[in-house]
Design brief:
252 residues, TIM Barrel, 12 strands
């Protein structure tokens, strides 16, 4: 049985890790490289780094930061934010990233997914989807969650898989930062619809939430930020709890 993955996410703004609620109200959570080292030592399975204002401010993700992360941790990590071309991805992978995640650029130019999958292989192409429930529909948002689109989450998820994405990172904007639990029903629908791995993100508040999302949805991984950054829950503690509850995880 494939083991479920626990993935800390570090949202980066101006070179610092930040965390908010429902994508706003950001507060400082520390140095990203130092946090990454801690999570690697604690037994995280992967890390995700997102430059959350790169797309809006028309900047590129800081390649120098990726280089620093790669020098200090021996752990697979994914980088996203402001990626819009094959050249952007080539630079990030050369700096040490294992995978890249695209969001706004994929929505605006879906062919980019095909191009990246062809150039680098589907295994390193993660498409992130920021979804909010509006008027009875799950609506895809771009620009760091600021802009709703005409795309519905389930149909967009199917399209991105067909175009060659190797993984889907689903963030429920309604749940993000609330610590009220993951969007289990939406994650279940996605896991049943797709053959590629689904990573659940948004809403983790305690270890029971991780247990529930793994038991109830079929997702391959669960991602969280604030609960780890502010030391409300440690990765070893979480993994031991999941193991005790018969959920297959990698124990260091």
């Amino acid at each position: 049985m494939l083991k479920k993955r626990i993935i800390p996410c570090l949202d980066i703004k101006d070179g610092r890790t930040v965390k908010g609620v429902n994508f706003v109200g950001l507060r400082d959570a520390g140095d990203p490289v130092e946090l990454a080292k801690v999570y690697a030592e604690q037994g995280a399975d992967e890390l995700v780094f997102l430059d959350i204002t790169a797309t809006v401010e028309k900047r590129k993700t800081l390649v120098a930061l990726v280089d620093q992360i790669a020098k200090h941790i021996n752990l697979p990590f994914t980088v996203g934010g402001g990626i819009s071309s094959v050249e952007d991805v080539r630079a990030l992978l050369a700096a040490g990233a294992d995978k890249v995640t695209i969001n706004s650029a994929a929505v605006r130019n879906p062919d980019l997914i095909n191009q990246l999958a062809y150039e680098f292989g589907s295994q390193c192409v993660v498409v992130a989807v920021d979804s909010r429930f509006i008027d009875g529909k799950h609506v895809v948002h771009v620009d760091g969650g600021r802009t709703p689109t005409e795309k519905e989450t389930l149909s967009w998820a199917k399209e991105l898989e067909e175009r060659g994405a190797g993984e889907l990172l689903l963030t429920s904007m309604d749940h993000d930062g609330t610590k009220a639990g993951f969007a289990d029903e939406l994650n279940r629908q996605l896991a049943e619809l797709l053959t590629i791995p689904v990573v659940a993100s948004g809403g983790a508040g305690n270890q029971e939430h991780f247990k529930e999302v793994f038991e109830n949805t079929g997702v391959d991984a669960a991602l969280a930020a604030g609960i780890f950054h502010f030391k409300e829950l440690s990765i070893p503690e979480l993994k031991q709890y999941l193991h005790d509850n018969k959920i297959a995880v990698r124990i260091v």
